[in-house]
Fold this protein.
Amino acid sequence: MQITWLGHSGFRIEIEKAILLIDPWLTGNPMFPASREAEAVAGATHVLVTHGHGDHIADAGRIAAEKGIPLVGQYDLMGYLKGKHGAEIIGYNKGGTVDLAGARATLVTASHSSSVDGVAVGSETGFMIAGEGHTIYVSGDTDIMADMEWMGEYHQPDIGILACGGHFTMDMQRAAWAARKWFNFRWVIPCHYRTFGLLAQDASVLKAGLPPDVDVIEPEVLDPIRI
């Protein structure tokens, strides 16, 4: 398995026979070098979207349409993106699971908002992505929520990709608390941080709040993490 940060909340995950792009915001992302887009999207099989905010859907529909691959996510938001970009979609809802070239992606709840140009579109979500003997919890933009208790017990993710930069999502301290209380992660990768001065600029607080056997990996853009 290979996980590559694309800056902010964007990731490229190579798992089973799939290459998944999660919330790819490449155009205008201060963390992403625009000249390396071709490298970031090479071979992608699906584009997964957690919710409708511009820092998550900005390039998702365009990339899916250009590459002829499906957009995957919450039903109502997928309908909107299909109408705008003409891309193929796999629209489903929380509790549903779809097979993506051998990886199984379950849509789970988050606590945030979802809108396009100020108009509510669909609802905010995260993903549990299972494959190659691992389960990845992609939190999406969220605060701590009680649902994390059953999600951790039921799905038993060992990898957490957690939006924890603060202000718009839970911060590092809250993410560490939730991870300690409800999950048994082996690896944690923070995201939705460092992009702007308003957000946390490092994960020191997250590291300090987790047991020493949890490997907190601060990602670097386009530097693959192999698990």
